């Protein structure tokens, strides 16, 4: 069988690329080694984690906040098994939706491990050991990533676990030690803290969410500490050992002193690494960099001209929405169109509560680049909508060019900022100024008014409600 495009991997980058290519008249096949489509994001990442975050958030509110709303729930309890069951149903519905999309768009789906025979032929090895070969004029590598670990840590996937196992634990931990204060560690740490676990986050950097704006990290630390999560920043982990049902983590603090943490589970959340195992890239000479990522040019084309790569398997932020955009870009490029992607405008989001979202440059990045900038900041506490819902933690921060007033970065902590950040991304796509954003009429009462107020603070230093 011959195809215009073969996509290897059915995560957000892969399946979106296949859909878009089919929409543009290409004959498309997609290869997935697992029995369900959707990749890490839909099966063991974004979707199941958000399902557990929502369930645990409802329980946390019932215990801690219903009373202030005049709602009496005597001794709220939860059924962790049902939470996990609901999560599984959400995953099943979502992955089933991808199967529907493949049928709707006439994309042929092959289950099995895809590996290169040569630059235009891909062998599909099935679970029963049988195989078949299909041919593609162009091939897109969308095989994603896997959780990383540290070289001295042995992952038994029972007590010393990755995010994959953390989404299907048989019980709520008594004390969950999280190695890594990034997005994954904080989100899953939040899930189990809300359900009654003690949670300690051990982070090598001097702050959590180390790549985000310093004000965001500071605010999030304050809020999560208030919720009961403990933090040990500037701590370099030196060993992780399991002793029966106990896990002992040793680390050196910034003074060089050894500190010991003891828990019943340890989540290793130190990032992810590109996954190319079994592809046979060496057979066709596709180049990879020192981090194992597939090397591409500005069109996401590898050094083998008919082979492209997208998503977590190439350089850049490991985000589902970044992979989706890259998938669309490659599909359109192969159809003769001229798409573009602005990597500066890909939002970063943390789904704790309050949520965290950011787009564009941080203050530190602008300082390093010697750009003259100005900052406007507005507290969520000053919003009527925030007071009405009881979600008063957080702020919106707008950074603009000091000379032109163009918005260079927006950073948020607060209720529903995961959705709110897109207002900033749209404004920045069209190179709006802080004044532009400040002069747009925002509905009242809404959380979005904080964006208007922060923009006005950046523009003329005079927010209206602060």
Automatic annotation (TrEMBL):
GO terms, biological process: 2-oxoglutarate metabolic process
Catalytic activity: N(6)-[(R)-dihydrolipoyl]-L-lysyl-[protein] + NAD(+) = N(6)-[(R)-lipoyl]-L-lysyl-[protein] + NADH + H(+)
Domain FAD/NAD(P)-binding: 3-327
Keywords from the named record: Disulfide bond, FAD, Flavoprotein, NAD, Nucleotide-binding, Oxidoreductase, Redox-active center
Family matches, as Gene3D superfamilies: 3.30.390.30, FAD/NAD(P)-binding domain (3.50.50.60)
One Pfam entry name: Pyr_redox_2
Binding site for FAD: 50, 114, 143-145, 312, 318-321
Enzyme active site: 444
Record EC number: 1.8.1.4
Pyridine nucleotide-disulphide oxidoreductase dimerisation domain span: 346-455
Top-rank taxon: Bacteria
Cofactor binding note from Swiss-Prot or TrEMBL: Binds 1 FAD per subunit.
Disulfide partners: 41-46
Sequence positions that bind NAD(+): 180-187, 203, 271
GO molecular function (one): flavin adenine dinucleotide binding
Remaining remarks: The active site is a redox-active disulfide bond.
Protein name: Dihydrolipoyl dehydrogenase
Species whose genome carries this gene: Polaribacter atrinae
């Amino acid at each position: 069988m011959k195809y215009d495009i073969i996509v290897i991997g059915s995560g957000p980058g892969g399946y979106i690329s296949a859909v878009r290519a089919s929409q543009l008249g290409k004959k498309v096949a997609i290869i997935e080694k697992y029995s369900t489509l959707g990749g890490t994001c839909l099966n063991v990442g974004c979707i199941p984690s958000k399902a557990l975050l929502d369930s645990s958030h409802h329980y946390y509110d019932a215990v801690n906040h219903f009373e202030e709303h005049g709602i009496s729930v005597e001794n709220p309890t939860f059924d962790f098994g049902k939470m996990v069951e609901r999560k599984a149903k959400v995953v099943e519905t979502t992955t089933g939706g991808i199967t529907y999309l493949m049928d709707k768009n006439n994309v042929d789906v092959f289950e099995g491990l895809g590996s290169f025979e040569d630059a235009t032929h891909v062998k599909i090895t099935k679970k029963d050991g049988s195989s078949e070969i299909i041919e593609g004029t162009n091939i897109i590598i969308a095989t994603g990533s896997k959780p990383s670990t540290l070289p001295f840590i042995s992952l038994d996937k029972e007590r010393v676990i990755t995010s994959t196992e953390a989404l299907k634990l048989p019980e709520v931990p008594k004390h969950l030690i999280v190695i890594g204060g990034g997005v994954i560690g904080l989100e899953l740490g939040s899930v189990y803290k809300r359900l009654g676990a003690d949670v300690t986050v051990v982070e090598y950097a001097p702050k959590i969410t180390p790549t985000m704006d310093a004000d965001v990290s500071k605010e999030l630390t304050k809020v999560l500490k208030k919720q009961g999560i403990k933090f040990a920043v500037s701590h370099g982990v030196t060993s992780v050992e399991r002793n029966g049902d106990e896990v002992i983590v040793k680390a050196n603090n910034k003074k060089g002193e050894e500190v010991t943490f003891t828990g019943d589970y340890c989540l290793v959340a130190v990032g992810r690494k590109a996954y190319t195992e079994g592809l046979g890239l060496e057979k066709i000479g596709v180049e990879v960099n020192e981090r194992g990522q597939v090397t591409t040019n500005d069109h996401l084309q590898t050094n083998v001209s008919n082979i492209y790569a997208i998503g977590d398997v190439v350089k850049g932020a490991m985000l589902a929405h970044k992979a989706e955009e890259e998938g669309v870009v490659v599909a359109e490029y192969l159809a003769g169109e001229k798409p573009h992607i602005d990597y500066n405008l890909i939002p970063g989001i943390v789904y704790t509560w309050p949520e965290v979202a950011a787009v564009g440059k941080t203050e530190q990045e602008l300082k390093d680049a010697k750009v003259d900038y100005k900052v406007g900041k507005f507290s969520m506490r000053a919003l009527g909508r925030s007071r009405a819902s009881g979600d008063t933690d957080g702020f919106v921060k707008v950074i603009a060019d000091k000379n032109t007033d163009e918005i260079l970065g927006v950073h948020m902590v607060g209720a529903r900022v995961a959705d709110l950040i897109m207002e900033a991304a749209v404004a920045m796509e069209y190179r709006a100024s802080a004044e532009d954003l400040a002069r747009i009429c925002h509905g009242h009462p809404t959380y979005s008014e904080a964006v208007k107020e922060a923009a006005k603070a950046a523009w003329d230093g005079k927010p209206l409600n602060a």
